[in-house]
What we know:
Rossmann fold; two-stranded parallel ribbon; binds NADP nicotinamide-adenine-dinucleotide phosphate
Amino acid sequence: MKILVTGYSGQLGFDVCRELDRRKISYYGAVRRDFDLTDADAVSQFIINYKPDAVIHCAAYTAVDKAEDEVGLCRKINVDAVRAIAMTCCSIGAKLVYISTDYVFPGDGEEFYEINDAKKPLNVYGQSKLDGERIVETLLEKYFIVRISWVFGINGHNFIRSMLNLSKTHNNLTIVDDQIGSPTYTADLAPLLCSMVQSDKYGIYHATNEGICSWAEFAENIFMSAGLKVRVTGQPSSAYPTRAKRPLNSRMSKKSLDKAGFKHLPDWHDALRRYIYELQAVGALPEKQ
Ligand SMILES: NC(=O)c1ccc[n+]([C@@H]2O[C@H](COP(=O)([O-])OP(=O)(O)OC[C@H]3O[C@@H](n4cnc5c(N)ncnc54)[C@H](OP(=O)(O)O)[C@@H]3O)[C@@H](O)[C@H]2O)c1
């Protein structure tokens, strides 16, 4: 089996390639200089030349707030490039793993979203990812759509890294406490994606670490795990307006993982502790206070 991974320079793509290494599966981790996702023809041509058995598409336009002002660019990358990838996978018979997001849902209520619940993205990024999903579902039979949320990994920027940076200059932080969801550690997700792509259990999945929390609760645990004394005070999202609206409820049900016999990811507290060790090992942790 030969796999093309996009977004090798990002959080998830990097860890997927590490996992493929561990599994001794042949792959190529593509970066921007291999093809720019704004150039659909270049994307297709690269895939045709490489002839993978599967594409794990981890690259995306991920700047949620900026997307509100860069609608065209966001859609070129998250919609047009996905169409090109899906069409090319279809023509060469390759499987496609498409990574999506909790942002496809409206984020109301307190229930866990099932995979087929009504979609209503609140922002440009969410709409572009949903449109990508619909293209994949329409054009392909051999696809995995995997919705994830609150992503963190060693190779890139994320909420945990922002909190650790803020701890260098702040003893007190005010963080939103009315958005509830589940963090996703790319080192935990990558093995699941690799198991999926080695199977024929196609479909739509939700895959995050187990357990839910608010951003404020997540922040408190980050400082605790890193041995940093920062006091976190909760505040509602309404007191911290952002360019893109965000869902309050990002709870996602894992029933489709169960049905297909895939194991859930570990609890997020455990994932966070392992990530802090990983940061420590590369010297990316601030001094304990
Ligand atoms: N981050 C989250 O919290 C989150 C939440 C839910 C779902 N997701 C989804 O999860 C997936 C992985 O996210 P991530 O956090 O690993 O992303 P990330 O760290 O932001 O990485 C994005 C990757 O996409 C590449 N990319 C962006 N524009 C490109 C272009 N025009 N041409 C070629 N490559 C381009 C980037 O390359 P450069 O390094 O060259 O820019 C980078 O490798 C994405 O599909 C994302 O939508 C993420």
